[in-house]
Amino acid sequence: MSALSPRRPHISTDTLDLAHAKRYWTYATTLAGVYLSVGFLFYFAAKEKLIGAGSGTMPAPLRKEFTGSLLASVPGLNAAWTLLGAAEAAVVILLAISLLRGEFLPTREKPVLFAGLGLSMLAFGLMGLANDMVGDFTTSLTVFTYLGLTAVVMVLVRQMAPYRSPSWLSGFTRD
Questions:
Q1: Which three-class secondary structure string do you get for the chain?
Q2: Nearest 5°: phi and psi at 97?
Q3: For the whole model, what pTM was predicted?
Q4: pLDDT for 126-171, tens place per residue?
């Protein structure tokens, strides 16, 4: 067995006592928080960039800030805005695929969820790089914080079932 292989927790459905219910309630609410927070953060960001009245067009205040930067010439401000929106939409699509595959279940591995979280880190990295290019270090630091918190979320998910016993999350009790 590889060190990266998930540990298959023993899940007994014939005796679902309060301790088991607490473990799985904690697991479910934690994972729901991950899907909801990341999913809706990227959904609304992608929607703003790709759907609606100004779809595909960088807003004027941002356009003014990025004029003269490398992004203005390669790939162009509107293209960069649209590509960022496409990356954000891809995060949402990956999270939806993860849900459809049932990766939220404690016995299922979560490769598509990890792919979505990894892509969100790439999107944050691109946003931080763009803000660094124009000298907006405050926004860049904020985006870097989002990137770091996404890494923490990935570590948290990696510590949950099926990669680890579900009992650690709900009070460190023994199975």
A1: CCCCCCCCCCCCCCCCCHHHHHHHHHHHHHHHHHHHHHHHHHHHHHHHHHCCCCCCCCCHHHHHHHCCCHHHHCCCHHHHHHHHHHHHHHHHHHHHHHHHCCCCCCCCCCHHHHHHHHHHHHHHHHHHHHHHHCCCHHHHHHHHHHHHHHHHHHHHHHCCCCCCCHHHHHCCCCC
A2: -60, -40
A3: 0.84
A4: 999 999 999 999 999 999 999 999 999 999 999 988 988 766 666 5
Question: Cβ(150)–Cβ(117) under 8 Å?
Answer: yes
Q: Answer yes or no: are the C-beta atoms of 149 and 7 closer than 8 Å.
A: no
Taking the alpha carbons of 164, 29, 37, 116 in that order, is the dihedral positive or negative? Answer: positive
Task: Confirm whether 68 is domain-assigned.
Answer: yes
| Number of domain units in the chain | 1
Residue 16: inside a domain: no
- Burial class for 30, CB neighbours closer than 10 Å (0-12, 13-18, 19+): middle
